User: Fold this.
Amino acid sequence: MVTMADVARSAGVSVATVSHVLNGTRPVSPGTRRAVLDAVDVLGYTPNTLARSLVTARTRSIGLAVSAISNPYFTEILQGVEAAALEAGYGLILADPHDDPLHERKVAQLLHERRVDGMIVAPSARPGELVDYLGRHAVPTVFLDRLIDPPGSGEGTPPATGTPFFDQICAEGAEPTAHLVTHLAGLGHRRVGLIAGLPGLSTTRERVTGYLDGLAAAGLAHDDRLLVSGNSESAGAERAAAALLALPDPPTALVTANNAMTLGALRALRRHGLAVPGDIALCCFDDFPWADLFSPRLTAVAQPSRELGARAVRLLLERLAEPHRPSRTVRLPCAFVHRTSCGCPEEPERPGAAARTASSALSEIPPEPPSEKGTAS
Assistant:
């Protein structure tokens, strides 16, 4: 078995120099670094990660706890996390807390006991026990996709003692949702319904806020009956859509607050024999790979999923490098993906037009089409 001493002899340097090159613990000249890495390649040396972790107190591993791993949105986030972690030389330990406050607390403890250097967590609607555990053990943590309340504001607040230990990252939620509502209003719709997510999540609160802001901006009155919860799941959204359709004056347009609920709403519309957008218009928060394959093609807000995952890793690595720096909350912009389920006609494809990505700011969206082209109500 090849040892570090073998690498040192082959490169003509000391064992300490090999250690500094492999662990990045001290600057080494480019020539010496190249000689050590060449020796590692030629000899096939594999560092003993376990032994190194006993010396450095680091395992170069990250715990990732996100629910609904089968959800395409979280799958893309996972891809971003994995790529960024691998590039930085970190491995991942993946767990699903199932959006359950008690289970997520157990998941955090299990990851901590496996000596991960830090965690990236999508917290539940009631993360108090999770945050308390992370705070008591000073676990470097990045909250992903869902924000918790800032210090001093109640639920989810870290302990008053000690230095802030967590950072947060998510996409903008209110403004993109408001844009969907004003877009539908611009097409003539006066009764726009929202199928919202699980109560208590910051994403749900922000998208409800955006919905109400959009109604106000369009000069539309808010009807409490048009705002229903789909609990962030397909089955819940199917029931919620059915309840909206059963109203004496049902909505003529729907906004769904995530991709799973979009599928549930579409099932309910099909069961009621309604065509999109002929009978009811539909816009959704969350774009997903096959949204462009539906007939009609789904108008959506696209989140920068992979970028969210990659930035979460970078935030965590910065926290590990500077444990006492102030906490940060990072917000990334979304993109409006204009298709046809809203009732707009198919637009002729222009060169480069299909390259719109989730990192595009909403302020870059072209003007909405005149209302006479849309479906009136």
